[in-house]
Each structure stands twice: as C-alpha cells, then as structure tokens.
Amino acid sequence: MIEVYDNEATHEDIAAVVARQSEFAAAAAKVFAEIEAAASAHIQTGEQVASFSLEQGKVDWSISPSTDHDAALEFGHYVYQDAQGRRSGREGARHRTWVPGINVMRGVVHAHGGF
User: Fold this and answer.
1) Of 3, 65, 106, 115, whose CB count within 10 A is highest?
2) Is residue 19 packed enough to be buried (19+ CB in 10 Å), middle (13-18) or exposed (0-12)?
3) How many other C-beta atoms are found inside a 10 Å radius of the C-beta of residue 18?
C-alpha cells in the first residue's frame, strides 16, 4: 500500500527538489534578463537597473529591486510643486502632478501570462 502525505512539509520538499532543476534556473534567468531590459528603457541614472537581484530561495526564485523608490517607479507617484512650479514637498505645495509608473515588473509578468 502506498501512503501519501498531503501536508505543507511534503509540498515544500517536492518544491525544493523541483526548484533545483536547471529548467527553472533558466526560466528565472530569462525573466530576470527581460526585467533588466525593460527597466533599461527608462534609464536616467541607472540606479534601478543596477538594483535588481535574482536570488534562489528554498523552493523558488525571486527577482527584486532594492532602491528607496521602487514602488513609486513601478506604480506611479505624485510630484508636488510650489506656486512658482518648482518641486517641493507635500507641505506648502500648491499643485501636484501624477507621474505614471513604468510597470517594468508587472509588464514582464503579464507577458508571461501572469496577472
């Protein structure tokens, strides 16, 4: 008789074996390269492109940027201006302008069937 253990530990053990297969490393490297290429089209300082990292975890791969403004770049943000149109902080701002996100990571994920 075969006994199957359908629990989280068994799922993690199976995923850990699969994650070490070269096909998954190649797929992660391909997506990583596409994200870097998409980000390079929006380059001003190169900080965001240089901040992306690809790391293998216990059961999967992760790709992430590491700047202080990743969310603002990806999803968009407001720029605040004073009465003369110069950039300012929120306090004392008379106007604000929405700057759309560049959707680098979401665009690549979408191209691969995600979201």
Assistant:
1) 65
2) middle
3) 12
How far is Cα 61 from Cα 67, in angstroms, rounded to an integer?
19
CA 90 to chain centre: 27
Three-state DSSP at 41 gives coil
Distance CA 55, CA 43 (A): 23
CB 52 within 8 A of CB 35: yes
How long a stretch of residues is the chain?
115
pLDDT tier, 35 (very low <50, low <70, confident <90, very high otherwise): very high
Write down the pLDDT at residue 22.
85
pLDDT of 4 higher than 80:
no
Helix 104-111 and helix 22-40: axis angle, to 10°? 130
H/E stretch holding 25: helix 22-40
**For the whole model, what pTM was predicted?**
0.71
